[in-house]
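Bug report (template v2)

What were you trying to do?
Predict the complex of my protein with S-adenosylmethionine.

What happened?
Run completed; filing so the output is reviewed.

Input:
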Amino acid sequence: MSKKGRRPDFDTYYQDLFGSRWEGLKKAMDADPRYTELQQGLLKPYYLDAASLFPVQALNVEQAKNILDLCAAPGGKALAIAGNMGPEANLTVNDRSSQRRSRLRRVLDEHLASDALSRITVTAHDASRWGLYEQNLYDRVLADVPCSSERHLVKEPKHLKDWSPARTRHLAMQAYAILAAGFTALKPGGILVYSTCALSPKENDEVIAKLLKRRGDSCRPIMTGSETGEATEYGRIILPDRANGMGPIYYASVAKNEAF
Ligand SMILES: C[S@@+](CC[C@H](N)C(=O)[O-])C[C@H]1O[C@@H](n2cnc3c(N)ncnc32)[C@H](O)[C@@H]1O
């Protein structure tokens, strides 16, 4: 055990993934994150990890009419979407946790003017079941899924006891269920952005690879034009040791082909 009580298997797992980079990456995650001030379209600024804005940029909401944020609380990315969406657009923000949904409502109420609020609907569904009820409806879907959140574990070692490779696999399965449901809800021609704050490819590229394998004919990856962070097979990952403290954030975009 290290002095912060980290379980050796946590370090071993990430050393296997990152090799000699792991110690520096862990140190960068233990430092204060780099916050940015979100202001566009808001009544007052909201502060969030600067890397969180990249998945929203990739969503490209300016021309979209119907937008769905499947896992929205506490609401940083929802505010960024609301600040960039067009005057006719509607945004549905969903979160299954009632406690986190209350915080989401408060964040929206405090930061958005009544016109934007009137075009936002807050819902309380299990995102992994969304596709059973709505199909081919949204121009843009954001699936910012629950994940291992290793930065949080490094900063709050008391939560490390909850970490295990099996939990990573479980979260990856849950993430896939949410991603697949979001893809079903996406209109042909629409764009879905999948994002996590996880380090492991199991929760990142491998989840996208599964979607492409299972929905191959209807689905194609879109590579982002951004140069921030590091390219992965299907998206980009922004890691704090090489991005001035931003991240971790992984994001990847997929489009639904017109014929579906
Ligand atoms: C990474 S956080 C979302 C952060 C948020 N997008 C933001 O930018 O502020 C993941 C959220 O997913 C919610 N969640 C977990 N499982 C869910 C499910 N099956 N359906 C809907 N929401 C879920 C959690 O309550 C949590 O608020």
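What did the reviewer find?
Residues 109 and 117 are 7 Å apart (CA to CA). The chain has ten helices and eleven strands.
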